[in-house]
Amino acid sequence: MRKKVIAGNWKMNKSLNESQELVSKIINGLGNDTKCDVIVCPPFTSLSEVHSLIKNTPVKMGAQNMYHEESGAYTGEISADMLISVGCEYVILGHSERRAIFNESNKSINNKIKAALNKKLIVIFCVGELLEQREKGITTDVVSEQITKGLDGISSENMSKVIIAYEPVWAIGTGKTATPQQAQDVHSFIRELIAKIFSSVVADNLIIQYGGSVKPDNASELLTQKDIDGALVGGACLKADSFLGIIASA
Ligand code: PEP
Predict the structure, then answer these.
(1) I want to staple 131 with a disulfide (CB 3.0 to 4.6 A). Which of 42, 137, 170, 182 is the partner?
(2) Which residues make beta-bridge pairs with 91?
(3) What is the CA(171)–ligand 1 centre distance, in A?
(4) Is the CB of 83 under 6 A from ligand 1?
């Protein structure tokens, strides 16, 4: 039985004080008895302080990006070791905003995934189609290419440290959610693909999150689908009440 995983991607939001306030409210609202895994992904500038606050609580922390090199002349970049040194256990890689705004390719995402797994970070690997790709009927081709190239060279053993987040790009930050059936169809396609690339055991154990305008009022319908094992939440994770509402649905 796969445990549900709810992650909040804070994106480029929250100053240090605001981050401390938000994570404190989440911790207080959560109590100690959570039936799902809860991950917060604040901006780099808040990671260290958020980590101090989540110690001895069920909340875990991830970063929103990293670079694949270990160290050196890469101005503005952050390495896996740096993330680990401030308490990250997870890292989001391949988010559609990184792909679209910062031109990240399947190859560069693959390099990052390999580097993160080498350092034992758990990767939340995002995939998803654009609206025009869905309308052309090529959603599964797009997702299949992203997954095949993104996970190239990853061992079955390391797949226990990978979460896939299916995020249809047209549903991110738009208020348009995929219907539970649309999401379930792609999740089930992803699980079958992973069974083909790796094995049915890897596929059965894989956590596949849905992301795209998840809110407290649509979370339970999505999260009760057979192959939806959690949510990657953007907008709704910036307020403690709505993030806690989604966690309660899980
Ligand atoms: C995201 O950016 O990963 C996301 C799912 O955003 P939102 O929930 O705002 O659509």
Answers:
(1) 170
(2) 63, 123
(3) 8
(4) no
Query: Per the structure block, which two tokens stand in for 214?
Result: 């998840």
Spatial separation of the C-alpha atoms in residues 170 and 60, rounded to whole Å: 28
Domain ranges of the chain: 5-249
Q: In terms of DSSP bridges, do strands 37-41 and 162-166 run parallel, antiparallel, or are they unpaired?
A: unpaired
Ligand 1 pocket check for 115: Cβ under 6 Å = no
Side-chain-side CA neighbours of 157 within 13 Å: the count stands at 3
Give the C-alpha separation, 62 to 72, whole Å.
23
Q: Which CATH architecture has domain 5-249?
A: Alpha-Beta Barrel (3.20)
Q: What is the number of the ligand 1 atom nearest to the C-alpha of 236?
A: 8
pLDDT, tens digit, 9 for 90 and up, residues 189-244 = 999 999 999 999 999 999 999 999 999 999 999 999 999 999 999 999 999 999 99
The pTM (predicted TM-score) of the whole model is: 0.97
The closest of 111, 42, 105, 39 to 80, measured between CA atoms, is 111
Question: Residue 13 in contact with residue 238, Cβ under 8 Å?
Answer: yes
Q: Could you read off the pLDDT of 146-186 as tens digits, one per residue?
A: 999 999 999 999 999 999 999 999 999 888 888 999 999 99
Ligand 1 atom, smallest distance to 231 CA:
5
C-beta 139 within 6 A of ligand 1? no
Q: How many CB atoms lie within 10 A of CB 56?
A: 8
pLDDT at residue 136 tops 80: yes
The pair of three-digit structure tokens given for residue 150, joined into one six-digit string:
């993104």
For ligand 1, mutation pick of 233, 237, 239, 243 (most atoms within 8 Å of CB): 233
